[in-house]
Amino acid sequence: MSAALLEVDGLRVEFPTRRGTLVAVDGVSFSIARGEVLGMVGESGAGKSLTGNAIIGLLEPPGRIAAGSVRLAGKRIDGLPPDQIRRIRGRRIGAIFQDPLTSLNPLYTVGEQLVETILTHLDIGARAARRRALELLGEVGIPAPAERIDHYPHQFSGGMRQRVVIALALSAEPELIVADEPTTALDVSIQAQIIGLLRRLGAERGASVLLITHDMGVIAETADRVAVMYAGRIAEIGPVRRVLESPLHPYTEGLMAAIPAVGRDVDSLAQIDGAMPRLHEIPAGCAFHPRCPRAVAGCDRDRPGLVPIGGSEVACLLYRPEPGEAAHG
Ligand code: SF4
């Protein structure tokens, strides 16, 4: 059995515009093993949410996958007709977004929404589905689920609503959970609870998680590995401890210059001068070169690909193998 549940290979997401084609995700490749939590971190506009949306088939037109592939348990899921990807999204991939209200219908009780999702995706009857909905609400930490199951979304606080969304995402027993900024809208104390919940539920159920966030602290608390995105590409990917403790890419070094804590927003880090380039202004060569404190000759011309270094992979010319020398792994 292949250990990888999700395999993304050379993913490219483009937006055709009147001024030309913008490339928002450029040759992104990574995999997630069964039961693994991969954190994807970067400033806003780095392409991380678009990567997540491309995987789950929710790219907003005119955005489109222009190249590459997405495989779930070995089968391609990019380019499927909308009804097929919708089925996969409900049954095999659970999605959690920043705003729980985008996932919940205000006109139905949370119980009705859970039961409907369970009935759509699992082969069980209405009574069993309601029992399952109650169990799920209990599992995600909703107090008095027997009472709360008949309440409407607006009767829950933000943190409790996000727990309901997690229950909804888990209700069809998915193999993969894609969580995009799941805690950003919540108070810091609630964030920690939701992170703990995601980590525990993923581990207990053997589900893989793609956790997309701009918050380094959330990654540090939750992820097994982390992919650092910059200007639509992966700058560095590796085991979370290793990347946190000894970052290789100058951009990651900048992100890590302060000890991560929950609530740390990479958009607000002062260690790196300048801002991430807009899509129509991505510089030639290494996209980070105008901000890079370690730039060398060639950084404004050669675009580095990922090379393996001691368990991580890094896209930086400083680690380019000498001609004739294999990259050390
Ligand atoms: Fe800096 Fe050059 Fe490495 Fe890019 S390739 S991160 S500019 S040293």
Write up this protein:
With 329 residues, this protein is an alpha/beta fold. Strands 6-7-8-3-9-10-12-11 form an 8-stranded mixed β-sheet, sandwiched between helices. 43% of the residues are buried. The chain contains 10 helices and 12 strands. Bound molecules: iron/sulfur cluster (SF4). Iron/sulfur cluster (SF4) binds next to loops.
Short description:
Helices cover 30% and strands 24% of the residues. By secondary structure, it is of the alpha/beta class.
Question: Tags for this entry?
Answer:
single chain, 4-stranded antiparallel β-sheet, alpha/beta, 329 residues, 8-stranded mixed β-sheet, 30% helix, 10 helices, binds iron/sulfur cluster
- Number of E strands: 12
Q: Biggest sheet, strands in spatial order? A: 6-7-8-3-9-10-12-11
What is the residue-mean pLDDT, rounded to a whole number?
89
Strand content: 15-25%
Layout of secondary structure:
Elements: E1 4-17, E2 20-33, E3 37-41, H1 48-55, E4 64-72, E5 75-76, H2 82-91, E6 93-96, H3 110-121, H4 126-139, H5 145-148, H6 158-170, E7 176-180, H7 188-205, E8 208-213, H8 216-222, E9 225-230, E10 233-239, H9 240-245, H10 250-256, E11 307-309, E12 312-314
Parallel strand pairs: 3-8, 3-9, 6-7, 7-8
Antiparallel strand pairs: 1-2, 1-4, 4-5, 9-10, 10-12, 11-12
Helix pairs in contact: 3-4, 4-6, 6-7
The structure holds iron/sulfur cluster.
